[in-house]
Amino acid sequence: MVTDSNKEQQIMYLLGQAQFVRDEDILYLLEEADQFNFFYQHLSILSEYLDIFMREKAKNLFLEERHYPTMTSDVDHDNQLLDIAFDFSHIPSEEIGSVLTSMREKKKFHRLANGQFMPLDTDVFQTINQFVERFDVKANDLANEHVHLPLYHSMEIDDMMSESNQATYKQAFKRLLRDLKQPETREVSLPEGIEATLRDYQVDGFQWFNTLAHYGFGGVLADDMGLGKTVQAISYILKLWEEKDHTFQSPALLLHRPHLFLTGSANLKSLPHLYMSKCSTGQKMNAKLCGKQHHQMSGSHRIRWSVKKLMC
Fold this sequence. Notes:
By secondary structure, this protein is of the alpha/beta class. The protein has helices spanning about 5-15, 30-45, 55-60, 95-105, 125-135, 140-145, 155-160, 170-180, 200-215, 230-245, 260-270, 285-290, 290-300, and strands spanning about 20-25, 25-30, 70-75, 80-85, 110, 115-120, 145-150, 165-170, 275-280, 305-310.
């Protein structure tokens, strides 16, 4: 029989690196950590030097990647919530708590009660751990398979899940992300009553306002001075007014500094159904805003555009 002594020496060296202990003609791995490292690191290297045959019992010692937990993001439109679904079907529900504990302790692996090794340094477990820590999720929540969150966490969830091969996005969640990242794709028409000419980026701002409103979000449109935030806000308010049959249950109020008043007037001079008023500072202005004037404005069926000079 012809042997390759150099190859045999390399194999024995690799087995020694894997921490095998020799007892006559049998090699053992005694520590759990060494067993895990052998299956998930050393075994693939050894396979380059020899053919490896494993009994079924040995194969069952490690959880296959196709049996790792999965995460699915969706939108619950009825309740306006994110629906994050988890599939732990290959992990007993009574062991999910201990798995979370191992993840919190930053362990490389967790061993299930049936003896299977489960690597915790994979992208899916890292994503789940990040999610659990960020939103204070309990084992019972994961065992129940669904966690609900406000829609405004959608971008954060996307950042967490985008790197995981075990993460899935439903169409509604994809559409939500697209609308938030590319609001111009919703193509909401400008209000008929606006005669001002909006630049392309101002139309995008108007579309963004409508996208936020569609999903029940609030938002802040912030850019450099003089780029037309006022006309974008006016366009959005006017669009709401037209969609609500030219009526509001409460007034729409724009507050800005006094030197913008003339600019605002120019934006709105062609709109007879908009009422503009300019109020001064001090207690008298506060009384107008919070008292009689507010009552009169609420009873009106016209949009009121009020410019308040606020000194803080």
